[in-house]
Amino acid sequence: MTKTASLPRVVALVPAWRSAAFIQETLASLAAQSYPNLHILISDDASPDHTAQICEEFAAQRENTRVIRQPRNLGWVDNVNALLAAAAGDYFFFAFHDDVLKPMYVERLANALTENPAAVISFSDLETRHLDGTIEMQEYTLLEGITEARSRGRQVLSRDGTWWAPNRGLFRASTAREIGGMRKHLAGECSADLPWLLRLALIGEFVRVPEALVVKRFTQQSLSRSWQHNRWQRFGLQCACIQAIRSAGLPLTDELLLQLSVLQSWGQRLGRSLGRHVPNIRAGETH
Fold first, then answer.
1. Separation of alpha carbons 113 and 212, rounded Å
2. What is the DSSP code (8-state) at residue 9?
3. What ranges in the chain are assigned the alpha helix state H?
4. For residue 258, what are the contacts with CB-CB under 8 A and spacing of at least 6?
5. What's the mean per-residue pLDDT of the chain?
6. Which of 56, 92, 205, 268 has the most other CB atoms within 10 Å of its CB?
7. 149-158 and 252-273 helices, crossing angle to 10°
8. Whose CA is closest to 35, among 88, 125, 111?
């Protein structure tokens, strides 16, 4: 067995849509990765521009790359799930079409995940490039060292800090199969990565690599810009989080306390939108 074959097989899952103007830099950053056992799986979501052509030209030059062309637009959640269903490997990560990765990204995160068998995901700090050209360094440290599932769940539910940073990390393929992919909620796709990260947090630990290995670029086409974050979307998201908790197989006490945390979070956000104060009862620390 070669040294490369003995390493965990890592698959970059690239959900692409209408990204002809910027996806080439993303693909180039994947091609520049130092990790030798990397495979790239791209799913073009019936883009109306030349995204699919760019991806196919990229794949034609590389044996480790494959492109799926969806016959109709699925939306980002179903496109992600199509990638998860088609991928075969040990570790996966979402290589979003507007992110750029530093060359050591996969190597550093794969090593971190391998060295921490209790972890389900490893992630790095971020360099965020905003539309106005400003650059912001961001790190998410709030899950470091938390070994208890309920405490990790409460931290994810708080949505404090750059809570979405771990969604740009390597996760175990076995864990993704256990979860069954991302899910839309009552209000659609808005922040559907929150219940996904919550389920991950209820299964295992998160490992942070303290280097800015991901460049998050905000573009005019960035999906989050289309979300209104209105009360209906927030309600749908809260219901999805409750369902994620129910499906985690936690002890009944932990499940109930986490569901109370969801309701508390919903009440606080609703109170802020109405200009009222909702006290923090710190559910989960009552015994």
1. 17
2. P
3. 3-6, 23-31, 51-60, 76-86, 105-115, 149-158, 173-179, 193-203, 231-246, 252-273
4. 150, 153, 154, 157, 245, 250, 283, 284
5. 89
6. 92
7. 10
8. 111
